[in-house]
Amino acid sequence: MDAEQLRENAHKMVDFIADYYKNIESFPVLSQVQPGYLHKLLPGSAPNQPESLQDVLDDVQTKILPGVTHWQSPDYFAYFSSNSSVAGFLGEMLSAGINMVGFSWITSPAATELEMIVLDWLAKLLKLPDDFLSTGQGGGVIQGTASEAALVVLLAARDKVLRTVGKDAIGKLVAYASDQTHSSLQKACQIGGIHPENCRLLKTDKSTEYALSPESLSAAISHDIAVGLIPFFLCGTVGTTSSTAVDPLPALGQITKSNEMWFHVDAAYAGSACICPEYRHYIDGIEEADSFNMNAHKWFLTNFDCSALWVKDRNALIQSLSTNPEFLRNKASEANLVVDYKDWQIPLGRRFRSLKLWMVLRLYGLENLQSYIRNHIALAKHFEELISQDPRFQVVAPRKFSLVCFCLLPPHDKEDCANILNADLLDAVNSTGKLFISHTKCLVLSGKYTLRFAVGAPLTEERHVNEALKVLQDKATSLLQTL
Ligand code: PLP
């Protein structure tokens, strides 16, 4: 790496990215290209001779950006957001600049120690119990995604119980969650060797606002024990993907405790809101959990990827995931003086991801982060109020955070075309390129094709919400006229 070459080119790149952000509203939010478009635009093999940065940037502008869906656009309201910020970006840049691989403490002591410190800071902002801090038997670790977090804790829980009941009992282990739980739990069960029929997704309905009912969990556990199975894991969710339902942690925690099960809490999206005192109650009961996860890259101004996972018993992770080949041996690890994060995750190599979270916490501070969350929730409430005033639409699930679930109602004599109507509305608004929303259907939400309007992009202002509503209303008018 030539320092002067870096200085010159990196300045050009920063200019390019700054211009991208300046003009971001001019791009169609959802990429409008067709599959295979890029193969037609780029050569079939790599160049023999070096090309100029300017030529590459020209290609980015004309060939790559049309195939990008602009997650940072203020008109992005799909799935859940994936935040970027100046602080998060600078942290990523610094991490790329230092470019170390911090799998063991010795491979970059600062990377391990900063991660421990920053996750302790964040745990304190969330008012997690002290058991989750690195000063006790637990601690935090940055995983790439919530899916990896679910996998590593499921493996830790599995091995913990198998140490007692014997490895041959793996076919009897049962994991529980609600039918609203993210599919990453099923994937974790698949990878973890849990029998597919033993991943119980318990039904939820309107009566519990789509949250897991403790009664149905207790009943399922009792039934499974009666037939000789071994309940070992519960994944509760705070802020489900489809409708941001919140499972009742205190009651669920009591059940897992009395059945000696591992209790994991997935707050991938909504965990960020719990830094605000008025939303912290959503994780009341977290004292009973064994692990807790939130994605700082979703709604906490930290560039992807940064999924924060805390466990109460770090040894449970280490016993499942540790390997100690000769080529990694070193005095600090042997003396048991340090944390080696390679033993808390699936891969060996790991990036210096704590830098960006540290930058976010330091450059913004708690009060700004709280205002950021509150502003998005206020914007979602604003959208909810506006769309509720239009009798053609219906809000179909209670809004708790910054997601509004709604649908367009068909005329009374055409009720059977409700799903098609809403799918058409989704296509119609997204193909304008003026906004991007997503849908869900897996829900019990009366089995309806449901539209999701998730506020969470850092640049979104009230005018973007108002404009999005107008596009939705205009397209709804056109579609209803064709019926
Ligand atoms: N859990 C919840 C509640 C989610 O909403 C999501 C994604 O939206 C995930 C887990 C999976 O996240 P990741 O992409 O970080 O694995």
Automatic annotation (TrEMBL):
<comment type="similarity">
    <text>Belongs to the group II decarboxylase family.</text>
</comment>
<dbReference type="InterPro" id="IPR010977">
    <property type="entry name" value="Aromatic_deC"/>
</dbReference>
<dbReference type="GO" id="GO:0006520">
    <property type="term" value="P:amino acid metabolic process"/>
</dbReference>
<dbReference type="InterPro" id="IPR015424">
    <property type="entry name" value="PyrdxlP-dep_Trfase"/>
</dbReference>
<dbReference type="GO" id="GO:0030170">
    <property type="term" value="F:pyridoxal phosphate binding"/>
</dbReference>
<dbReference type="InterPro" id="IPR021115">
    <property type="entry name" value="Pyridoxal-P_BS"/>
</dbReference>
<keyword id="KW-0210">Decarboxylase</keyword>
<dbReference type="GO" id="GO:0036469">
    <property type="term" value="F:L-tryptophan decarboxylase activity"/>
</dbReference>
<dbReference type="GO" id="GO:0019752">
    <property type="term" value="P:carboxylic acid metabolic process"/>
</dbReference>
<feature type="modified residue" description="N6-(pyridoxal phosphate)lysine">
    <location>
        <position position="298"/>
    </location>
</feature>
<dbReference type="InterPro" id="IPR002129">
    <property type="entry name" value="PyrdxlP-dep_de-COase"/>
</dbReference>
<dbReference type="GO" id="GO:0005737">
    <property type="term" value="C:cytoplasm"/>
</dbReference>
<keyword id="KW-0663">Pyridoxal phosphate</keyword>
<keyword id="KW-0456">Lyase</keyword>
<dbReference type="InterPro" id="IPR015421">
    <property type="entry name" value="PyrdxlP-dep_Trfase_major"/>
</dbReference>
<protein>
    <recommendedName>
        <fullName>Tyrosine decarboxylase</fullName>
    </recommendedName>
</protein>
<dbReference type="InterPro" id="IPR015422">
    <property type="entry name" value="PyrdxlP-dep_Trfase_small"/>
</dbReference>
<dbReference type="Pfam" id="PF00282">
    <property type="entry name" value="Pyridoxal_deC"/>
</dbReference>
